[in-house]
Amino acid sequence: MELILDEVGHAYGGLEVLDGVDLRVGEGEIVGLIGPSGCGKSTLLSIVGGLLRPSRGSVSVAGAVPADSLNPFTFVFQDFALLPWRTVEGNVALALEHHPLSGGERRERVRAALARIGLAEFRDAYPRQLSGGMRQRVGIARALVVRPALLLMDEPLSALDAQTRELLMEEFLALWLGERTAALYVTHNLWEALRLADRIVVLSRRPGRVKLVVPVPIPQRERAEPAAQAELAALHDRLWESIKAEAQLADREMADA
Amino acid sequence: MPSERSLDRAAAERRAIAFRGGGFALHPKRWASWIAFAAVLLLWQALVSLGAIKPVFLPSPSSIALALGHLLATAAFWRDIAASLSRILGGWAIGTATGLAVGLAMGLFSLARAVGVPVISALFPIPKIALLPLLILWLGIGEPSKWATIALGVFFPTAISTYSGIDGVPLSLVRMAQSFGLPFGHVLRKVVLPGALPSILAGFRISAATALLLVVAAEMIGAQQGIGAFVLTTGNLMQTDQLMAGVVVLAALGLLIGWGLSALERRLLRWR
């Protein structure tokens, strides 16, 4: 299955946030989406996930959507979006309850998803009892339990502290290298994108359009090794050069009304 | 690195940092509440016993307790309590059911909101007891006019707390549910209603207090039975100890309702 965005534009009232974005996410590909604040990264993700109707352009898929996927386009949210009145187990089960599964199969899927991400012993905890990192692990378990074809990750690590972010990034990678689920990964953090993405797409400042596409030609599992650092640093410089002037301009922009 | 010598000098010159925090934070002191309560009762009893206050104006706590004891042994007093309770329950149930339905509609649908807000804002400030004569004209002097008065008083706080509770549910949670493909009914049942529940339960507190207030007022205006009628009659007969016993029963009723709602909140909002 391939995701194809064709000239996608969006405006909130008179405020143009996206301007003709062309983008493809191939089978099993991880695309990092970076850009200055307010460039419409999250808006783009909402459009892909069907939560927002684009003002212009089209979003489509080519190829077969995996038959066993209950929710092909699945979000992982920046603020976790957990229901505070449900336990960890209940939050993960939420994604399955409206599907025609037997009670036994549903429980088994939830159990497997929790076990895979190391949450089994937190099954009965409420979100308020968990650290930020654990909450986002619940968010990831909830996403995995529906067997997504494309993960839409909206700055999933931004609300976490630096160390937790590092830990979760490694866990993402381990999961991904096992499954190769395609993902559109929005982030502010260039290093995060460089660790995870196969390809990095830079959006310009508002109204966002694709400014630069940078493939990362090093396999993910080798990116932590010393040999890769020089090349990653060079890519980082290139990305930063492209984004810096835009970020400065975006930073100095005043919200009108 | 500072030398040993300079460290010694620093030690010789050291001064404690003055404490300047504290205060502005309250700590529970249960014993003080009980002592104050007992002190007030004792003072009251003493003032009446010593003749400083005439019992006909304010009977002593002990004579109120005595009167209450006698009253609770009579079937007539229990009929009064039962009459008031059934009016509260009937009126509260009608007002809550309609308030929830209207509040839900106003929380979910733009049209209902646009129509409902001005209507509710205009009618909410009316003291509902002022409508009792009108309602008696429409529905007769019997139970329905009392139910209707209480239902009206309960309806508004319920509708308002319901739609403002729905407003308070984070839109991000609704979008999350939609992003997993939950149908409307599931989003409503699993996200919107539980999210609005704390506000709805807080509204129950207000509406229950309103119901108690209105039942007494309504019974004073037009009823043979009920605690409100009892308090009015005993007042006219200057049976102040019985009057106060009626007031104590009303206070106990208010407390019981409050405890019941607290227990309900603890059960339903365990996750908080």
Please tell me about this protein's structure.
The complex is a heterodimer of chains A (257) and B (272). With 257 residues, chain A is of the alpha/beta class. Chain A has helices at 41-48, 88-93, 103-116, 132-144, 162-179, 190-196, 226-252; strands at 2-12, 15-25, 30-34, 56-62, 73-76, 150-154, 182-186, 199-203, 210-215. Helices cover 36% and strands 23% of the residues of chain A. A 6-stranded mixed sheet of chain A has the order 5-6-7-3-8-9, sandwiched between helices. In chain A, helix 3 (103-116) crosses helix 4 (132-144). The mean pLDDT of chain A is 92. With 272 residues, chain B is mainly α. Chain B contains 11 helices and no strands. The longest helix of chain B has 39 residues, at 184-222.
Radius of gyration of chain A: 18 Å
Backbone structural class of chain A: alpha/beta
Number of helices of chain B: 11
Shape of chain A: globular
